[in-house]
Amino acid sequence: MPSLGIYIQVPFCQTRCTYCNFHTGVVSSGRFAPYTDAVCREIREHRALYEAAGIGLAVQGEAWTVDTVYVGGGTPSLLDPRLLGEMLDAVRETFSCALHEVTLEADPETVTEEKAQAWAKAGINRISFGVQSFVDGELAAAGRMHRREDVYRAVPILRGAGIANVSFDLIAGLPHQTAESWSQSLAELVALAPEHVSVYLLEVDEGSRLGKEVLAGGKRYSAGALPTEDQMAEFYESASAALAGAGYHHYEISNWAKPGFESAHNLKYWRREPYFGFGAGAHSFSGTQRWANAHDAAAYVQSISSANRLPVAQLEPVTPAQALDEELFLGLRQLDGIDLKRIERSYGVELHGKIVTLESAGLIERNGDTIRLAPGKLSISNEAFVQLLS
Ligand code: SF4
After folding, report:
1. Ligand 1 centroid vs 389 CA: distance in angstroms?
2. End position of a domain, from candidates 239, 270, 301
3. Quick one: which H or E segment has residue 245?
4. Which residue in 25, 44, 90, 326 has its CB near the most CB atoms, within 10 A?
5. What is the pLDDT of residues 270-318, one digit of tens each?
6. Are 364 and 374 spatial neighbours (Cβ–Cβ below 8 Å)?
């Protein structure tokens, strides 16, 4: 039976971080239950909703086995755990399931003992924890709600609830970050020994408050205190060294894990395995088509609940040319690299010329048929991707 990942989008936050322009809303908690009701309905009725929307499933629903669920956002840990439990029950009652990884994204300030116990009881066995930094000044400037002490308060609560798989996110490139403060964040992270770590280079969305300040000038959001791209690359390299030294295996450009704790759900994205996304703005991939729901949460609820219609904003077949680009782009994000010969055979293409150019530029390494991004050039991987996909 082919395996399937399920992603559930919860597009609500307590406040808006200065650099973020995601389609998330700061809304009253009264909107949470109608939203999760709509998600449950989308899950339970997905086959009829997909069919009406023109989404063809190569494999019928009952033939998949769901083995991973990822509840992301937004800040899904804001929800009453009962609502999270209802969405997970809808998954269990709709699909054949052998769930071995059920992740919830959580922000440190939202963690309470009561919630953590309820999450574990609902079957959540992995927490992706939005730490971002251990330096309060950086957290405050970025508009984050939590502070360093919230992380220290929350981690024992999660461990006490029996959650044995915790991932920490850190952001390299926050305003006011320095080599020294970055080393401090890395040292504190390593001391807390999460099973998994994601390090993201800050991407400032042009439409965010910080992005507008970068373009138009001003001091309110500390645009002038943003590290340079060179500094960010150094932060990335120092994270890589610190994490390797602490026994983490670097398996994807932004992700490190203790042995056996690689994210099974996220690996599906990079390996082009199928996943269904439920909720406003959620993306899905069936193997032959990609589609995405409309972003507006209120319109999503209205469409599912009143019109019994899936609000699909994008639906496209994956052409062979797109599939090839995805194989290269997603495959090379993984540090194990890709099998060049397999790709050339599957897609009837010849990539040798491009690979030689990238190899001589030092961006790519080749070992027999396996190609991978050069370890020292991961922070500038976009250069390799642009050349490879052109
Ligand atoms: S960065 Fe995350 S927590 Fe902050 S506003 Fe965006 S989605 Fe919400």
Report:
1. 30
2. 270
3. helix 229-245
4. 90
5. 999 999 999 999 999 999 999 999 999 999 999 999 999 999 999 999 9
6. yes
For residues 53-77, give the mean pLDDT: 86
Cα–Cα distance between 265 and 286 in angstroms, integer? Answer: 15
Q: Which residue lies with its CA nearest to atom 7 of ligand 1?
A: 74
- For ligand 1, residues with CB inside 6 Å are 13, 16-17, 20, 22, 24, 73-75
In this structure, the residue with its CA closest to atom 6 of ligand 1 is 20
Cis peptide before 247 (omega within 30 of 0): no
Gap between the Cα atoms of 168 and 130, Å rounded = 6
Query: In degrees, to the nearest 5, what angle opens at C-alpha 378 toward C-alphas 108 and 364?
Result: 155
Q: Which structural domain range is residue 329 located in?
A: 320-389
Cis before residue 74, ω within 30 degrees of 0? yes
Q: Is residue 276 part of a domain?
A: no
How many domains are contained in the chain? Answer: 2
Q: Indicate whether 265 and 326 sit together in one domain.
A: no
Same domain, 94 and 194: yes
Which CATH number does the domain housing residue 375 bear?
Answer: 1.10.10.10
- Measure 52 CA to ligand 1 centroid, in angstroms: 33
DSSP 41-84: HHHHTHHHHHHHHTPPPSS-GGG-EEEEEEEEES-GGGS-HHHH
**Within this chain, do residues 261 and 193 fall inside the same structural domain, yes or no?**
yes
Out of 270, 287, 302, a domain closes at 270
Which amino acid appears at position 297 of this protein? A
CATH number at residue 159: 3.80.30.20
Residue 224 lies in a domain: yes
